[in-house]
Amino acid sequence: MLKVQTVGIEYITQIWSNVAPFIERAVQYTNDYNLDQIKVFLTTGAWLLLVAVDDLQQIHGVATIAFHNGANDRTAIITALGGKQVVNQNIFDQVCKIVRGMGATRVQVYTRDSAIRLYEKVGLKKKATLMEIKI
User: Fold this and answer.
1) pTM as predicted
2) Which DSSP state fits 9?
3) Hey, which of 10, 52, 80, 101 would disulfide with 64, CB 3.0 to 4.6 Å?
4) Range with the lowest mean pLDDT among 59-68, 114-123, 126-135?
């Protein structure tokens, strides 16, 4: 069984070569940020890095999380999630427990339409469809 752990900002650069491939695959369909920018967000503490590890501390998945403090909720926003079979109830429950301990009252994921059913299986509900235009 995989265990989800936080990675302190002081260890990001030490494990970067192990987590970067997971993050790179996770953000290949977005142009909101690139791998170098994500590294800056993580090493400055603006974002949180979570890893899913086995009993031998081998990394099987990675999540990056940004927090937003709104009027009614502190939202944990999963900005990247990469790995094999890491969208399951066990992993998601562990992520929720960690971010709840950091004050989050809800979790959001921005995802492609092709991944919606995966997230619905762990209890997320489609709230809106995001559309944009670059100006």
Assistant:
1) 0.90
2) G
3) 80
4) 126-135
